[in-house]
């Protein structure tokens, strides 16, 4: 043995769905040459991360080893795989490798965030059998079917053997747009022997074989043919195949297509510019759409997850770009609601219902199919690849565990590797080499903050308990000058005593201040502590909760 | 015509699922004698109502007409039907009517909130054919199957005809505990003719006939028999039939039953005390449970919706009352996750997965059935009752609309009546008589607040944008005394300039203050406005968001 090793470590996407970032390395321990696969985001929510727009992997570990990174590979153009490229690149500065369409999207991400990347660092690559060298690795992008065109699994050859990184995938022989899943190609890749398969786990709990994108052609066609009024369809903008199917169905039923929402237009433009969409009908501009009879129009709109500012939400309430919905129109969610988004999606459905619009959702698969491999499809893929080790990725812990069990049942050596677990793949079985401290970085407005630095904790506390500002002036003799003042935010006006809460608080604080010992009045820290304690105590008695308190003591000197 | 009319008005539960409260009235317009059916709650969440424990209907309209209320009827003991009784009673002071078990739960709610209700106002009533008079109405509780024992539909006879108020129901001939659905009884009730059916709409989108509670007996039995380690099962505490089935299965597989969670014990105690549970096995106390071999134990626990402080959540992390889970144990969600609770439920599932505990959910109906009538069952009920009018209730707008369409397709006159719509039922078709201003009341700690009074809006803003306190002292000559101070809460420490945000803010504010015109410094309102504007402007430049600001100007006089 040379003392070198092959390592794998997820920094995001393992133990969660979203925010994918995986690292492979080869070399002497601590000196491995590294490649990064995907840099994705996940989305914040009011529940756990109020005010946070995007969540990205903590890349501090990578940044500290920047000189060892050979390249950043992007498997496909979904936000949870490419969304953090623009936000992270300046800290990593390694060349980016992607196929054409994916690279076009990555470029948009880089521009959006003002990343200072030279063109030479953007390395567009072709599909397998083309490969390229990244330090000790030889890498190839193998076309694989998913819900966005040009998705790729990776073949990563190292001195310690071949790795297959599935990327996000499903087994779809007829994906409408893009490359079908090709079992012979994968079998050929597997032939020399595969040391480890890193495999998508998203749909491991779905017991039935997945269905092809092409199975929707008939049902979507019938829907558009049979609907009387305007039809609106929402899906992920990146689901270019679905857009194509809907557009074809529109053409067949005499409807013009209008794209609403920036992401929708951008995706169709990019897919067209990169040659993926060649048959997409000419669309009408939103400002011209209202001239077209309703029954001759299909709107393809963003906002399938209930995003408040997206076209779907706007259409369900006041309208969008001059277009409004009415009784007799049909609104189709050609999508699945991601867990956690049920409430905003229902809100839209109910608003549409109030307008008399007929709402259709996936209807048990009639109008939507998943982009991920279900359990039997995962097994099919395992059986094609026949890896020595199966390392589940892209899933919450329960998905990874279930996937590991499937592997073990077939005699594949498996391990649950969650974010920050560095796995040594060089031996007879995958084993944990190291636990790396990792976590999440929040994009808060324009600033990246750590998830554990207390900002969000304070926001959540203010949201749960309200906020009180107490101000007090103390004169040169350490005597209070006048009474303390309170300002409330996010608190009920009156409490149990039915007096104004602010007055009760100010009365209690005044009484305290005027009785306080000199040593308390002299000591800022002590004074602040006492005032906070008192505000919280009085509030608890009056309103049954303890607010967050900011105390400002101003001393005249 | 006597000039009298029969009215119906939902104050909660119509246009939403939860927080049920319905009003019926009969008399001259504006002088109707009223009955209230159910006073339920719904639950707050971080998303829309941070810090709010419970949400209840706004009963201002009822309170203002308190002298016209003949009685408050509680159909069954679910929180969304009985949960607000304790919180509302002091404002309504009408007698409460319920069957035995439901009344026992209502009493607990009243006690919990310290309602000062005399015993004479608690009127326990028997089941149909027993009826009682409430002003112009004669009312009877008709047993109907649901997921809690002793649920009742109501027959409300008025001078203008018979109303059937379904309550929450399913068609279950074998509900394990409690009374089966009795089609003959309902047919007999329908025989004299029913003017209006107010009907549960919860499951109107479920296309297949519902399944009986009894269908779970075999699958739950097999699960308990075949599991090797400790088994934990969670379900709604009020699903007494499910608890009975699980307890029976435990007994059959040699397991002792231990109840964890206050609600679970309370519900079993109440059901036993009121004679509903006669066969429930003797349970072991939590403190004795750890003495029992794991494979001989079943824990029945609260927290099926992921509630953070409930037993299920505690068991998935550090343990509960000395009991901990381990590899080889099984955790069953014998429940459905209510939309909106997916994330907390997943959190528990993943924590259990990390412990190596096998997690089972309803598995497509194997371990859980719904308590509400699915679409075909609703149609069966319509066909039995044969009402003149069908008024859908207990549903979001889209459920009510779908249910209305079903009714209309069979020639039933129907209308969508959402909260605050008073419907006149006396004519040939239901019609809107009036729109009453209504809404939601929040229980915030110990205080009831209105949903529109700005408290929650301010909390959400602080949660999204953080908070800045600015203090400034102005002397007797209207000159600033020293510099303004800023205190931040819930904001990043540093912004784009990489300087401390607080210092950038204070520098900008100081500069402004020392250049400000006298007329600004003299004018509190103007000064405050300018300081807020400046803080928000600087913050936008530094961190890309505009915080909430509290300004305190102290003037020495």
Description:
Two copies of one chain form a homodimer. Chain A has 17 helices and 27 strands. In chain A, strand 10 (137-143) and strand 11 (152-158) form a beta hairpin. By secondary structure, chain A is α/β, with parallel strands linked by helices. In chain A, strands 8-7-6-3-2-1-21-22 form an eight-stranded mixed beta sheet. In chain A, helix 3 (85-92) crosses helix 4, helix 6 (216-226) packs across helix 7 and helix 15 (501-515) packs antiparallel against helix 17. The longest helix of chain A is centred in the last third of the chain and has 20 residues, at 524-543. At the A-B interface, helix 11, helix 13, helix 14, strand 25 and strand 26 of A face helix 11, helix 13, helix 14, strand 25 and strand 26 of B.
What is shown here, in short?
With 557 residues, chain A is α/β, with parallel strands linked by helices. In chain A, 31% of the residues lie in helices and 24% in strands.
Major sheet of chain A: order of its strands? 8-7-6-3-2-1-21-22
Query: Which chain pair shows the most residues in contact?
Result: A-B, 66 and 66 residues
How is the main sheet of chain A built? 8 strands, mixed
Q: What is Rg of chain A?
A: 28 Å
Flag low-confidence runs of chain A: none
Q: Helical proportion of chain A?
A: 25-40%
Give the N-to-C terminal Cα separation of chain A: 73 Å
Percent of residues of chain A in beta strands? 15-25%
Structural class of chain A: alpha/beta
Oligomer: homodimer
- Individual helix count of chain A: 17
Shape of chain A: globular
Number of strands of chain A: 27
- Average pLDDT of chain A, rounded to a whole number, is 96
């Amino acid at each position: 043995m040379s003392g070198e090793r092959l390592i794998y470590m997820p920094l995001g996407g393992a133990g969660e769905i979203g925010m994918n970032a995986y690292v492979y390395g080869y070399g002497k321990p601590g000196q491995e040459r590294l490649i990064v696969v995907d840099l994705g985001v996940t989305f914040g929510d009011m529940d756990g991360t109020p005010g946070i727009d995007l969540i990205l992997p903590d890349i501090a570990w990578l940044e500290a080893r920047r000189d060892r990174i050979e390249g950043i590979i992007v498997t496909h153009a979904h936000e949870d795989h490419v969304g953090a490229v623009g936000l992270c690149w300046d800290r990593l500065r390694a060349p980016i490798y992607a196929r054409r369409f994916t690279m076009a999207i990555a470029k948009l991400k880089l521009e959006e965030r003002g990343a200072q990347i030279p063109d030479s660092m953007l390395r567009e690559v072709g599909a397998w059998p083309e490969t390229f060298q990244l330090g000790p690795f030889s890498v190839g992008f193998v076309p694989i079917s998913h819900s966005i065109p040009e998705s790729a699994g990776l073949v990563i050859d190292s001195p310690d053997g071949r790795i297959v990184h599935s990327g996000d995938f499903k087994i779809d022989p007829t994906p409408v747009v893009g490359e079908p899943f090709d079992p012979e190609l994968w079998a050929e890749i597997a032939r020399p022997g595969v040391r480890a398969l890193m495999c998508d786990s998203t749909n491991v709990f779905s017991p039935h074989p997945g269905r092809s994108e092409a199975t929707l052609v008939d049902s979507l066609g019938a829907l558009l043919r049979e609907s009387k009024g305007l039809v609106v369809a929402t899906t992920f903008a990146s689901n270019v195949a679905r857009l194509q199917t809907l557009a074809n169905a529109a053409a067949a039923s005499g409807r013009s297509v209008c794209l609403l929402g920036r992401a929708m237009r951008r995706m169709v433009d990019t897919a067209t510019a990169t040659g993926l969409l060649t048959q997409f009908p000419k669309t009408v501009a939103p400002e011209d759409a209202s001239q077209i009879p309703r029954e001759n129009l299909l709107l393809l709109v963003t906002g399938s997850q209930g995003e408040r500012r997206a076209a779907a939400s706007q259409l369900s309430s006041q309208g969008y770009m001059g277009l409004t919905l009415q009784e007799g129109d049909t609104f189709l969610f050609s999508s699945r609601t991601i867990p956690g988004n049920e409430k905003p999606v229902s809100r839209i459905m109910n608003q549409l219902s109030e307008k008399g619009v007929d709402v259709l959702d996936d209807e048990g698969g009639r109008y939507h199919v998943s982009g991920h491999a279900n359990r039997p499809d995962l097994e099919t893929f395992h059986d094609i690849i026949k890896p020595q080790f199966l390392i589940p990725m892209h899933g919450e812990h329960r998905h990874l565990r279930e996937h590991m069990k499937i592997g073990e049942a077939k005699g594949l050596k498996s391990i649950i590797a969650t974010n920050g677990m560095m796995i040594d793949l060089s031996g007879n079985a995958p084993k944990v080499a190291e636990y790396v401290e990792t976590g999440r970085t929040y994009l808060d407005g324009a600033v990246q903050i750590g998830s554990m630095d207390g900002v969000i904790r304070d926001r959540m506390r203010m949201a749960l308990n309200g906020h009180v500002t107490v101000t007090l002036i103390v004169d040169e003799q350490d005597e209070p000058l006048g009474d303390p003042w309170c300002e409330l935010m996010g608190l009920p006006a009156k409490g149990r005593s039915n007096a104004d809460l602010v007055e009760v608080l100010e009365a209690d604080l005044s009484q305290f201040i005027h009785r306080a010992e000199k040593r308390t009045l002299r000591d800022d820290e002590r004074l602040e502590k006492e005032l906070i304690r008192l505000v919280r105590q009085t509030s608890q008695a009056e309103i049954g909760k303890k607010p967050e308190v900011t105390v400002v003591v101003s001393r005249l000197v």
